[in-house]
Amino acid sequence: VAEADIISTVEFNYSGDLLATGDKGGRVVIFQREQENKSRPHSRGEYNVYSTFQSHEPEFDYLKSLEIEEKINKIRWLPQQNAAHFLLSTNDKTIKLWKISERDKRAEGYNLKDEDGRLRDPFRITALRVPILKPMDLMVEASPRRIFANAHTYHINSISVNSDHETYLSADDLRINLWHLEITDRSFNIVDIKPANMEELTEVITAAEFHPHHCNVFVYSSSKGTIRLCDMRSSALCDRHSKFFEEPEDPSSRSFFSEIISSISDVKFSHSGRYMMTRDYLSVKVWDLNMENRPVETYQVHEYLRSKLCSLYENDCIFDKFECCWNGSDSAIMTGSYNNFFRMFDRNTRRDITLEASRESSKPRAILKPRKVCTGGKRKKDEISVDSLDFNKKILHTAWHPMENIIAVAATNNLYIFQDKIN
Amino acid sequence: MSAESPEPASADEQKEMEDKVISPEKAEEAKLKARYPHLGQKPGGSDFLRKRLQKGQKYFDSGDYNMAKAKMKNKQLPTAAPDKTEVTGDHIPTPQDLPQRKPSLVASKLAG
Fold first, then answer.
1. d(C-alpha B106, C-alpha B16), whole Å
2. Contact A257 B99 (CB under 8 A)
3. How far apart are CA A375 and CA A367, in angstroms?
4. Pick from B45, B59, B101: which is nearest to A259 by CB?
5. Quick one: pLDDT band at residue A354, thresholds 50, 70, 90?
6. DSSP string of A270-319, one letter each residue
7. Which residues, listed in sequence order, are joined to residue A61 by a DSSP beta bridge?
8. How far is residue A142's CA from residue B107's CA, in Å, rounded to a whole number?
9. What is the pTM of this model?
10. A22 has which bridge partners?
11. Residue contact B29–A204, C-beta within 8 A
């Protein structure tokens, strides 16, 4: 597998018509959903390539002897305000605002230049004409409109567009900055957890997100399994949280692995804004913003890995950062696992399902078969044993269409798009 | 001669044995400590965090490099170690050790 092709982020836009992926090679590929077409009914809902561009390039910071990867860590769409589409894409150090626009007309009949672009001698022009617009083959162009650089000493792990549609935040391991979309040479630092003495460092910021409706509220998660909710109205520097979410731990069950597996790899608000979801190594937790002392729901993603932590530590898999996502109505959540498995939980019925994203297990338009991991004892037919799981096939990034039951699943260098059976 | 019976386990050891039975996590921890006895003696958190914060760090000193090149005229220098994750002032860097500029970028295969 070419490393550059490994998908590092997947994100639907607000309407769900566009799906963006970013990869380790710094490229962005945008897919667009096909319009309903009576003559080809089964192509409804298919996503085809719409645009692709090189977002970030590899860099070397000579002053700090630091290699800056071009890998796209996150893509976040802006709400659409005109015919063009805008998205933010970021690598470890630099955030860029990209404009994706369509061109399906071109002007012909210029006065000062020929059809092939050569300039005409102005003294030879004896008559003026009005250029006319002629249709042309659709061209989709991506251009960088803003480059937000030099604001992060550490590696950017999150970006989040605010509900005011004017500002956004970017978070690295120790700091969170607030930007205005129009201003690239300044940003405000709103969280700084860097200790005066780095020897005292005990936790880092792992993810951050703005509240979907309250433009003054954001949350950030930590490597110690805690979430802090901050209100920007209370002070300019939000080092003191407004709410602190942590599940109490049973001290007798503490082990060397406890802190590592409690590290939160992703935090996402529900669409309603009432709940938030966190992903740690073995579980997904749903928190009610009104209750700080424990989550309201906990879902086990792959509890059978608890007895494999030693080898997962040795092969570094224990540090894998899985993401999670809500469906449009907040009734279901989804997250990835190993062996190209991904899990979906229905919050109402409490049913869960394990599915596989791989070419071998599914043909186009075939219904996915539920998978099951055998945790011990006799393995039933069609079950897979824990020791047979392929830990190199990890599904870290998934996305759910904002309104429909269409999901995008990134399996290493392949993108799978699944949807509800069409009747 | 009578065989000596083993010493009765102390309360701590007994609890540890119980833990292993009850908690798979503790059993895994015991496995890890057996393989890496020095692990966890410093606060575990700081080690991981420092490694995380240092991602991407590469070292190259042009002074060392040029001095070494000059010295190479006189004697043969030992070849670079196969493990080139960290190149510091002690180890004379060679052109192979320097971070390579990635080759020209091609289009993503997802773009078809």
1. 56
2. no
3. 25
4. B45
5. very high
6. -TTSSEEEEE-SSEEEEEETT--SS-SEEEES-GGGGGGHHHHHHTSGGG
7. A66
8. 14
9. 0.85
10. A9, A28
11. no
Q: Is A325 exposed, middle or buried (0-12, 13-18, 19+ CB in 10 A)?
A: buried
Give me the residue label for tokens 């498995």. A341
Distance between CA atoms of A159 and A207, rounded to whole angstroms?
9
Report chain B residues whose CB lies below 8 A from the CB of A202.
43, 45-46, 49
List pLDDT tens digits, range A153-192.
999 999 999 999 999 999 999 999 999 999 999 999 999 9
Pull the structure tokens for residue A133: 């617009």
* Spatial distance between the Cα atoms of A84 and A101, rounded to a whole number of angstroms: 5
Our CA-based measurement puts residue B109 at a distance from the nearest CA of chain A, in whole angstroms, of: 7
Pairing, β A85-90 against β A95-108: antiparallel
* B80 pLDDT above the threshold of 50: no
Rounded to 10 deg, the angle between the B24-35 and B11-22 helix axes is: 110
- List the Cα angle A384/A417/B108 in 5-degree steps: 105
Rounded Cα distance, A158 and A173, in Å: 10
Round to whole Å and give the CA distance between A320 and A336.
11
| Segment holding A346, helix H or strand E | strand A341-346
Is residue A329 very low, low, confident or very high in pLDDT (cuts 50, 70, 90)? very high
Distance from CA of A131 to the nearest CA of B (A): 35
Contact A258 B25 (CB under 8 A): yes
Residue B6 class from Cβ within 10 Å (0-12 exposed, 13-18 middle, 19+ buried)? exposed
The maximal CA–CA distance of chain A, rounded, in angstroms, is 93
- Tell me which residue has tokens 């602190």: A244
Q: What are phi and psi of A260, to 5 degrees?
A: -60, -45
- CB-based contact A66 B57, cutoff 8 Å: yes
Local structure of residue A1 (DSSP, 8 states): -
CB A335 within 8 A of CB A385: no
- Radius of gyration from C-alpha coordinates of chain A: 24
First CA to last CA distance, chain A:
37
CA distances from B53 to A96, A201, B43 (A): 23, 11, 16
Residue B25: list chain A partners with CB under 8 A: 253, 255, 257-258, 306-307, 309
Rounded CA gap, A77 and A238, in Å? Answer: 25
Question: Is B111 in contact with A29 (Cβ distance < 8 A)?
Answer: yes
Q: Does A415 touch chain B (CB under 8 A)?
A: yes
Cβ–Cβ below 8 Å for B26 and A52: no
| Whether the Cβ atoms of residue B97 and residue B84 lie closer than 8 Å to each other | yes
The C-alpha atoms of residue A293 and residue A30 are separated, in whole angstroms, by: 40
Mean pLDDT calculated for residue range B23-31:
89
Q: What average pLDDT does this structure show over A24-44?
A: 83
C-beta atoms surrounding A403 within 10 Å = 14
Q: How far is it, in rounded angstroms, from Cα B93 to Cα B86?
A: 10
For residue B7, give both structure tokens: 């010493």
A23 contact residues in B (CB cutoff 8 A): 108, 110
